[in-house]
Amino acid sequence: MAAALIVRGGEILIGQLRPDQPMAMQWEFPGGKIEPGESPELALARELEEELGIRAAIGPLVARIRHNYRHGGAVDLHFFAVHEFAGEIVNHIFHQLRWVRLEELPTYDFLAADRSLIRDLAAGKLL
Question: Which residues span the domain enclosing 72?
């Protein structure tokens, strides 16, 4: 999975999953699955165009996390900084989108896989 840390003026973009999705109403960063033959950067650029309608300049890898779920599954997450994009953000898949200050991130109910990253972002360690 590849996810974007889209930053603008001290704020970061987060999305809330819809009520009809698995892990409903939890928060995450935009992004998605890496298809066979895609690099994480190409996958993220494609996902951001599909989810938000933007053409993003994918920046450096900020964090890579392997999360093991209680039910036995695991996911590898690649988080990239995105400081520039073209187009207006249009919400195509989320229940809602929100720009929040980094220090406010821990007040949101994020997916379990994102929680260690959330602590580091809120502490000013990564961006």
Answer: 2-122
